[in-house]
Amino acid sequence: MFKTVIGLEIHAQLSTPTKAFCSCPADTFGDTENTAICPVCTGQPGTIPVLGEETVRLSVMSALALNCQVSEISCFDRKNYFYPDLPKGYQITQYFRPLARNGFIEVRVGNGRKSHIRINRIHIEEDAGKTIHEGASSISASGKQGGTLVDLNRCGIPLVEIVTEPDITSSREARLAMESIRDILRYIGVCTGDMEKGALRCDANISVINTRNGQSSNRVEVKNINSFRFVEKALDYEYKRITQAMKDGKEVVKETRTWDLASKTTITMRKKEEESDYRYFPEPDLPPLRITGSYLEEVKKMLPELPDEKIDRFMRDYALPEHDAVVLVSDKELSGFFEETVKVTQRPKEVSNWLTGDLLRILKERDMTVGQSELVPDHIVDLLRLLDSRTISISVAKEIFSECVRLGKMPSNIVEEKGLQQVDDEEEIESAIRQAMKDNPKAVDQYRAGKKAVLSYFIGAVMRRTKGRADPAVAGSVARRLLEDD
Amino acid sequence: MDKSVLKKSLEELTRSELPLESFYRERISRFNGEINAFTEVREANTDCHEGPLKGIPFAAKDNIHSRGFRTSCGSRMLKKYYSPYSATVIDRLGRAGACLIGKTNMDEFAMGSSTENSCYGASRNPWDTRRISGGSSGGSAAAVSAGLIPFALGSDTGGSIRQPAALCGIVGFKPSYGLVSRYGLTAFASSLDQIGPLSRSVKDALDVMRVIAGRDPKDATTVGAERELFDHNLEPDLSGKKLAVPKEVLEYEGLDGRVYGSFMDMIERIRQEGGIVDEVSVPSIKHVVAVYYLIAPAEASSNLARYEGTRYGFSELSSSYLRSVGITRDMGLGEEVKRRILLGTFTLSSAYYDAYYSKALKVRRILDSELSALFGDYDFLVNPTCPVIAPKVGEITDPLVFYLMDIYTIAANLSGLPSISIPAQPADNMPVGFQITGPRMKDMDVLSTGAAVEAISPFLKDGIAPIPERWDE
Questions:
Q1: Which residue of A285, A289, A290 to mutate against B (max B Cβ within 10 Å)?
Q2: Where are the domains of chain B?
Q3: Structure confidence by residue, pLDDT tens digits, A210-221
Q4: A102-133 burial: b if 16+ Cβ within 10 Å, else e
């Protein structure tokens, strides 16, 4: 038996208006290279970093949302290494005294169970620039082939690094923990959570224990995991690689590996002895960061309801199953939409069905969010009323719903325009069934011989003839009467 | 009695048809060839602002940035670097009406005590051009001493304003850490660096401080609401003032007898004015050089990492990034700078951090507490600024001998204290400096007492440091 031990290091870009230590804009994704830069973030001689207030506020919010103890005094340090995208030759981080410690998250792993994942520390640091290695076929700005280019737009964007304890016991749980942290950061508005754009990045540490003999493998770090799916895949791969080595009696090397997109495997990045000495020391340009009790209180007041509490509340107040609550809450906008709608209709489960079912499917097809769609709560209220009064059938309702999302028309207007009122005229239904009985006497015989399932054939025939406007229940009872009477 | 070159200059400005700037430019072009104080002289920005220093030209050490000027830091690495922005002190002086006309020579990246480590060669001491001007702000000191400029800015990390001021016979003031913005000062050791004025009188230093001091949003280590600190008049009065002389200072075997004589002469004069001078003990003073040469190189090794040829400055390409960095730095940086980078890299390495850097921080804290205890009983700490008179150019080759020359100036940097060097009785016709150090933020008291010492100094003429005859035309 093998037991997996996983810890995560998550870097989240903060959605501040400016970079951490200068006044350049922080939202530079898609900008022309080297346009969001200044003397400070390009490391010109004589410049000095100054910590922005928003960086502090959003970091403290993150720490509070992740249930951490915020240090009254935290300090900045320099991590020294040479790399072309690191203009100062060091990264400003918090090494010796981080912003916050001892937090936790509750990760829902299914069936109402939660895993308690402890958070060791959260600290503030600055992002580096981007190094772009060009292929041999391209020509760089210097006119040389296959050059390396540097874009410093990203340089200095504030990050929080969130380090969990090694409390995670499976790749799936790692992914869920990652998603849960993403959801929390999004909820409090400190990070877009967009892994594809690099706003959220994940490194994972994994080791495996053989529970039979208590032997533990060396720890392996996997870097550059840039999607939730790959968190799970990379760790699955590592688990298999490590357990195989242990079974074969081979040593698992302590090293840093990277997730390779092309081969869908992890490959060695550097061995332990190749790790550089970062020569951390206190950053003399930045005074210690002091967080007072009153500031903490102020920031606490800015915190919205967090996803975990909200899921609990949805299950309790709206009597929703956990799955519904989780799906609704995972999207803040969607959960808000849900609550607005329920306020009017007071029928949470039905609203949830529409939102978590049809709506999410349509949104996914069209790659948009609730806010971007034309749907408003009144549409659902109207739709439910039309269903209640049996003005429309369920299949017509689904058709109308899709139009609401796309075009924003009121359901009752659509019904009017297209004449989609449900056929509750029994005569019309009766004539449709009689026609069907005439068309298919064999089916009539089968039914009468006891094959009751054939009934659905007649209901279907009615729906076809009425273009879905008939109430299937009415069609069923009329069909039964005619088939049994005659 | 008028004790201010700046005030005199201002008066001349209003009287004379000839702009003051032309007067100094003419002197620079006549004498700089012999003194080698300037690295660059340029047309000033045309529009001089209205302000307390309107029309007064000044020079800045070549590690202080001014947009459009070259800022070489005395290094081959930055010999072609033109600043894309201006330092806060330059902006403030500009708004006060002063005009920057040149940059002055210095030891490479301010590492040195003689300007011999400059890629432009050594600046000469105006009192004897065979001798060094001191350093690292040697160009600023030489320029002011020879009357090539009314005042100049320097930077002081371990004595780099006060020591050259002492060796060239002028006033050099290092303010409390945090009073003057370091934004735009090329960093050497950020926790020690401080910009300050070099001038020919204490009053001039005060006039400059009034303009450059104050909190700067671009430098988080500046302290707030301290600008008013200098909105007072000098009160030069020694009677009842309590001055402490650490016995460790007098017992130092490297102290030149002539400098000791000059120092004791000033002590006697102070006593005659009613000052109380006691010998005290500050045991950790013996360790300041060791502490300084652990902390300063450590910070420098990190501060100078940016000079690797990717974005600006000297660059030598090779087969890989790290190889290019190695060759660029090897060729672009001088011996002393490389020595200190290596020293700092070593002491910060994880295996030695606790043994060296961490221990040095502890001794720095002990020094702090010993000095604050001292300032409980005494108003000021006094000592010779530098243990020797200016050596001849090329005379000293052992870096350790240079390091030990900082022994009296370093403590003020390690503890962030205000400290001033005032010219005292010369020795063998060479200037000697008398240093006064006060408690943190008591800069105004240090200046006032400096003015009192200046008033009784046999060196000064009419309260102003004299220009050596050779240049006094």
A1: A285
A2: 5-244+372-471
A3: 999 888 999 999
A4: ebebbbbbeeeeebebebbbbbbbbbbbbeee
